[in-house]
Amino acid sequence: MADAVEIADLHFSYGDLEIFRGLTLRIPAGKVVAILGASGSGKSTLLKLIGAQLRPTHGTVKVAGTDVHQLSAEELYRRRLEMGMMFQNSGLLTDLNVFDNLAFPIRENFSPPEELVRRIVLMKLHAVGLRGARDMMPNDLSGGMTRRVALARAIATDPKLMMYDEPFAGLDPISLNHICHLIRDLNEALGLTSVVVTYNVKQALDVADYAYVIADGMVIGKGTPDEIKNSPSAYLKQFVNALPDGPVRFHFPGPALEEDLRLKT
Predict the structure, then answer these.
(1) Cβ–Cβ contacts within 10 Å for residue 257, how many?
(2) Which residues contact 264 (CB under 8 A, 6 or more apart)?
(3) pLDDT higher than threshold 90 for residue 169
(4) Long-range contacts, 73-80 (Cβ 8 Å, 24+)
């Protein structure tokens, strides 16, 4: 099966802070793939590298066989039309109602007749169960409804690749379950490839066909959900079982405490 995304020997830093140091992974077309990792492990940064918002210091990021960082601005713009993004904070435009939030990317990129815009928007809202909320403002939506509207907007332009940045964060159990089913159902119904980055292990492994776990700038584990759950790796056991002690660090890198407090003589 062809790869929708192929990342090879990826290196990236924010100044002196190294985020990736040789990350390599592949996202098969048509699958739901979870990227798991603790907060600060670079999951959201990885999505920005796939979308070419950031540029790696070394290595390649290929989408549909093309190195996105070698594209011209015009070529990159066209390629991004094939990508959908559900942002971590949903990213809805607060001055527009639900209908116009979905209509905005359609009007901006394709300029179709308004009756066609209306039908597309209502179909996308119906897919996430919110056709009746079309006239509501973002600030009037619950957290779960906001995520579903954000998901509907992400699929409004019929992308081939969907990226989800922490789609489960802050949701009640019912809303969380809705989002899980929507990710899986939309991937199959629309023939998408989905990349789900999250620290929420249980839901990610419930929805994914395959998963990667990243830490310290590299892939420390990969496999099917069952392989991840049953791995003998100390890293994966700690992460899957939410153990406080293990090889995954809790403290963000920094000087020794004694040095910061100037206790050394």
Answers:
(1) 9
(2) 258
(3) no
(4) 76/52, 80/51, 80/52
**What pLDDT digit, counting tens, does each position of 73-87 carry?**
999 988 998 999 998
CA neighbor of 36 nearest in space, from 22, 28, 46: 46
d(CA 155, CA 124): 7
Secondary structure (3-state) at 203: helix
Tokens at 210, concatenated: 């395959």
What pLDDT, in 10s, does the model give residues 85-114?
998 888 899 999 999 999 999 999 888 999
Q: How far apart are CA 204 and CA 66, in angstroms?
A: 28
Distance CA 117, CA 110 (A): 10
Residue type, 165: D
Contacts 24+ apart (CB under 8 A), 44-50: 44/88, 44/165, 44/166, 44/197, 45/12, 45/19, 45/20, 46/7, 46/20, 46/197, 46/214, 47/85, 47/163, 47/165, 47/195, 47/197, 49/7, 49/10, 49/12, 50/5, 50/7, 50/83, 50/163, 50/195
pLDDT number for residue 253: 66
Residue with token string 């190294």: 18
Share of the chain above pLDDT 70, in %: 95
On whether the CB atoms of residues 149 and 104 are closer than 8 A, the answer is no
Per-residue pLDDT averaged across 19-26, rounded?
A: 94
- 154-160: average pLDDT: 92
Who has greater pLDDT, 60 or 260? 60
Q: Which tokens hold the place of 145?
A: 């409804």
Residues 244 and 32 sit within 8 Å (Cβ to Cβ): no
